[in-house]
From TrEMBL:
Record SUPFAM superfamilies: Ribose/Galactose isomerase RpiB/AlsB
Binding of D-ribulose 5-phosphate, residues: D9, H10, G67, S68, G69, I70, G71, N100, R110, R133, R137
PANTHER family attached to this UniProt entry: DNA DAMAGE-REPAIR_TOLERATION PROTEIN DRT102, RIBOSE-5-PHOSPHATE ISOMERASE B
The species this protein was found in: Zavarzinia aquatilis
Family per similarity comment: Belongs to the LacAB/RpiB family.
Active-site feature positions: C66, H99
Any one Gene Ontology molecular-function term assigned to this protein's record: ribose-5-phosphate isomerase activity
Keyword annotations from UniProtKB, A to Z: Isomerase
Name under which the protein is recorded: Ribose 5-phosphate isomerase B
BP GO terms, sorted: D-allose catabolic process; pentose-phosphate shunt, non-oxidative branch
Length: 155
């Protein structure tokens, strides 16, 4: 059974619960990294916890939620092994997997409804990474470019 980690701030608690139920219904095990109530919390703390779960191999993929999705995606993407994609519909979720090999789906709880969130989840889970022409670009996401004009990486 595959494990998917979920993390949210206070704005995303309801959507996180909904998506956890969706995941369980699809046969996934859920690792809930919090938060679990309406008290105000700092989204970076939960983004970092999710990034750690992915980078240590505890889970292969994750789902992160905050009010807009912007803050938690910034926190997640500070880790070079994370490719967190803020998605607003099924198409952006599908493309995040096909072209970017996203390993974290990010949603804005105040931006989308439950049905759109479900569409994003399904697209994220069911879409494979294409590789091919995208592979070199994705490799550059985990390694900053050198100062050369060619865009070659230094690691």
């Amino acid at each position: 059974m595959s494990v998917i980690a979920l993390a949210s701030d206070h704005a995303g608690v309801e959507l996180k619960s909904f998506l956890a139920d969706e995941l369980k219904a699809r046969g996934f095990e859920v690792l809930d990294l919090g938060t679990n109530g309406p008290a105000s919390v700092d989204y970076p703390d939960f983004g970092y916890a999710l990034a750690q779960a992915v980078t240590t191999g505890k889970v292969e993929k994750g789902i992160a939620i905050c009010g807009s999705g912007i803050g938690i995606s910034i926190a997640l993407n500070r880790d070079p092994a994370i490719r967190a994609a803020l998605c607003h519909n099924g198409l952006t979720a599908r493309l995040s997997r096909q072209h970017n090999d996203a390993n974290v789906l990010v949603l804005g709880a105040r931006m989308i409804g439950l049905e759109v969130a479900r569409d994003c989840l399904v697209a994220f889970l069911e879409t494979p990474y294409e590789g091919g022409r995208h592979a070199g670009r994705v490799a550059k996401l985990g390694c900053p470019p050198s100062s050369g004009a060619s865009g070659a990486t230094s690691c």
